[in-house]
């Protein structure tokens, strides 16, 4: 298999059981088989408690599965030690949380610069990169504001900028438009489409069918089971089309 054929996200019979063997046991995800390619824009829908965040946390390497396999860009994440996993997460995955998860005492700029890590990137470069990324989400003029001095939609955009600062190939967003008015929601959708056009893979959880309709593929979750909406987008079969690798892409 060449690098060009490897899906950026592939799960094989992925499952998650919380508190197994106890009275509190919850089967949150059942044998999920997903193949998502570079440049795919995927929406995940489903009622509250159906397992959307559970799946997202597994894809984001924030949690470990109870069964099955997850290959991120061809790498079986179960074979990585903690340090290797942290590097993979830093280089491959941007995560926008269901809450905003911004640090209240830090400015927008400092929040966005967080994932760069203090050791690797010199301060001037950190600030410059963070500023560029804030400009990209339309917040260049709010860099010094703290989260409490920003609107909900602006806080959400700071959270998105933070997820994008390392230019990760995968952007995972858990209800990023949930708390937003429709105009701000549309701005964020436009941003996701630009990322997709730039060959990023965007996986978006949403309750909103109108938001999901912007995606190329839609999955619906019910009681931990995933089903792809047939007849939607160009890749409804779930088969990843061969992709021509862009310049500078690692295999
Ligand atoms: N840490 C946990 N421990 C035990 N059970 C959990 C845990 N996290 C989630 N669950 C349970 O797993 C199921 C799936 O939860 P999950 O957060 O994935 O749902 P969701 O689809 O994201 O819902 P929502 O739309 O409300 O965010 C739920 O029944 C939930 O109560
Ligand atoms: Mg959730």
Short description:
One of its GO terms (molecular function) is ATP binding. The chain has 251 residues and is of the alpha/beta class.
Feature tags:
4-stranded antiparallel beta sheet, binds adenosine-5'-triphosphate, globular, Rossmann fold, 29% helix, 7 helices, alpha/beta, binds magnesium ion, ABC_transpr_LolD-like, 10 strands, 251 residues, MacB-like_ATP-bd, P-loop_NTPase, transport, 6-stranded mixed beta sheet
Structure description:
- GO terms for molecular function: ATP binding.
- Pfam families: ABC_tran.
- Keywords: ATP-binding, Nucleotide-binding, Transport.
- It is globular, with a radius of gyration of 18 Å.
- Residues about 235-250 have low confidence and may be disordered.
- Helix 4 crosses helix 5 (about 150-165).
- Strand 4 and strand 5 form a beta hairpin.
- It has helices at about 50-60, 80-90, 110-115, 125-135, 150-165, 180-195, 210; strands at about 10-20, 25-35, 40-45, 65-70, 75, 95, 170-175, 200-205, 215-220, 225-230.
- It has a single domain (about 5-230), classed as P-loop containing nucleotide triphosphate hydrolases (Rossmann fold, 3-Layer(aba) Sandwich), CATH 3.40.50.
- The strands form 2 sheets. Strands 6-7-8-3-9-10 form a 6-stranded mixed β-sheet, sandwiched between helices.
- By secondary structure, the chain is of the alpha/beta class.
- Magnesium ion binds near residues 52, 53 and 98.
Total number of helices: 7
From N to C, what is the helix and strand string? EEEHEEHEHHHEHEHEE
Portion in strands:
15-25%
Please give the share of residues in helix: 25-40%
What overall geometry do the principal axes of the alpha carbons give?
globular
Mean pLDDT across residues:
88
User: Main sheet?
Assistant: 6 strands, mixed
Give the termini separation: 11 Å
Low-confidence spans = 234-251
Tally of DSSP β-strands: 10
Secondary structural class: alpha/beta
Return the CATH topology: Rossmann fold
How many domains? The number is 1
Distinct compounds present? adenosine-5'-triphosphate, magnesium ion
CATH homologous superfamily classification:
P-loop containing nucleotide triphosphate hydrolases
Backbone CA Rg: 18 Å
Q: Kindly report the spatial arrangement of strands forming the biggest sheet.
A: 6-7-8-3-9-10
* Top-tier CATH class: Alpha Beta
